[in-house]
Amino acid sequence: MLSKIVLIIFIVWAAISIICQFKKNFLRILRTYDFWGLIPSWTFFAPNPVNSDNFLYYRDFTLNKTTEWKKANKEIKASFISLLWNPNRREEKAISDSMFQLLRLSDNFDKDRLHLTISYLAILNFITALKHEENTIATQFLFATRKFDEFTKPIFVSNIHRLT
After folding, report:
1. What is the maximal distance between C-alpha atoms in the chain?
2. pLDDT score, position 46
3. Angle between helices 24-31 and 2-22 (to 10 degrees)
4. Residue 51 DSSP SS3
5. What is the pLDDT of residue 164?
6. 135: left (phi > 0), else alpha (psi -120 to 50), else beta?
7. At 65, is the pLDDT very low, low, confident or very high (cuts 50, 70, 90)?
């Protein structure tokens, strides 16, 4: 009996997910009640296709040295399982969205107050939670972009932030 109920729940969830890919009004209505983000929204043919890769780097400052820039994004190998189960995806998406939001804000926001925005603080929180060099006293982060036919170039550099 329980297995039938679970099967029905998954069938209804799958049907709603498929319907929402075609009927955007239906999706908008359901999103107001989708508190846990269970209904996906896939956009295979986006109006602005991705034409570059973006990276988040950080470096540490100790009393003696400044480290080289290190990639903050985890290298995740794509596998068949990641199509079905990818618990790191939400963290990646949150950081990516924060990066893009911060870049949008940096164009027309007061530079002296940019470090007070939620996007900046979310990224700073992520960076400070990473493993750092021993005796690190401060850290800094950087966004870089690389179009498919170019070298990686920096597009945003944060302030230096004390860790102690």
Report:
1. 66
2. 61
3. 130
4. coil
5. 72
6. left
7. very high
How confident is the prediction for the chain on average, in pLDDT? 82
Kindly tell me if the per-residue pLDDT of 128 is higher than 80.
Answer: yes
| Residue whose structure tokens are 């508190």 | 35
Distance from C-alpha of 76 to C-alpha of 99, rounded to nearest angstrom: 19
How much is the average pLDDT of 77-90? 74
Question: What integer pLDDT is reported at residue 45 of this predicted model?
Answer: 61
Long-range contacts of 89-95 (CB under 8 A, 24+ apart): 91/126, 94/122, 95/56, 95/122, 95/123, 95/126
* C-beta of residue 158 within 8 angstroms of C-beta of residue 115: yes
Q: Which of 150, 97, 161, 155 is nearest to 127 (CA)?
A: 161
In 23-162, which ranges are continuous DSSP H helix?
Answer: 24-31, 80-84, 89-108, 118-128
Q: How far is the first Cα of the chain from the last one, in angstroms, to the nearest whole number? A: 56
* CA-CA-CA-CA dihedral for 160, 108, 145, 97, to nearest 10: 90
Average pLDDT over residues 83-112: 81
Separation CA 73–CA 78 (nearest Å): 14
Residue type (1 letter), 70: K
